[in-house]
Amino acid sequence: MPEEITHNAIVEAVRLATEDVFATMLSLPVKCGDARQTPKELESFDGVIAVVGIGGHWTGTGRISLTPQLACKLAGALVGCSFDAVNEEVLDAVAEVSNMIVGNVKTFFEEQLGPLGLSVPTVIFGRNYRTRSAGVTNWSVIPFFTGSEEMEVHFCLMPTKQAHPVHREVLQTA
Amino acid sequence: MSLDVLIVDDSAAIRKILQRVLVQADVPLGTVCEASDGIEALERLKTIKVGLILSDINMPNMDGIALLGRLKADEAYRSIPVLMVTTEGSQAKVLQALELGAKGYVKKPFTAEQIKEKLVGVI
Fold first, then answer.
1. How far apart are CA A76 and CA A13, in angstroms?
2. How far apart (Å, rounded) are the C-alpha atoms in residues B115 and A119?
3. CA distance B120 to B115
4. What is the pLDDT of residues A77-120, one digit of tens each?
5. Which of A2, B30, B63, B76 has the most beta carbons within 10 angstroms of its beta carbon?
6. Which residue ranges form the domains of chain A, and what is each CATH number?
7. Is the peptide bond between B109 and the residue preceding it cis, with omega within 30 degrees of 0?
8. What CATH topology corresponds to B3-111?
9. Chain A within 8 Å of B61 (Cβ-Cβ)?
10. Residue A113 with chain B: CB contacts under 8 Å
């Protein structure tokens, strides 16, 4: 089992999963932009964020952020109708798109890491909010473009003991 | 003869898409019922007889594997064919579902053709 999953491996897995979901379920063109690594969390974000957790011997989070306009566009493409504003149906669709992307990334890494669990997605919509994920020191950020709209996938994956330093401390003193 | 179907998924969007895909697959649809988790699915089955169940795996309250176990343990529901349609693609989960008696497994994202192919021989 590897000691770490590299940034490049995460970028490739996210790219493949996102392109597959866009081509198969949304029939929308999508282009992957230049990926980067950052320890920074989102600051003062306006729009929709979907979060899906990964658990098991490795712990991770996939977080997808997009504008309300793109959220409406994705939802419309998924269910086959148009949406003018973010509503329950749009949030549900964004949750499902995120679930498919993160779920497929999880499946990709299970070949190396063994079985992993997937949480049900959480979706947040609002203005001027921040997000924090405990224990995450580095995010791989992969931007995607569809038409003039941009969506970002933030992803982290690390061995579980690294993600829970408090638990490791307890184990070491036991 | 029409086929009554129960679609179990916590996403309303996916339930809607699956219903559309069944029409595209020329399935002679009768009543289509929906449930957002395994518990709701079992409740639905008390009031309607269906000839096919399409179920997700990762759902709150009762997941698709637990639902499958309950269905196959109950004489009244044992013979209903169940097709799993899910993001959960791990080999362990696929095997678990098939061992429990699922008739097939389709991974999300899916095409209408993939669903159609899996339904051949099931209905």
1. 25
2. 25
3. 9
4. 999 999 999 999 999 999 999 999 999 999 999 999 999 999 99
5. B63
6. 7-173 (3.40.1550.10)
7. yes
8. Rossmann fold (3.40.50)
9. no
10. none
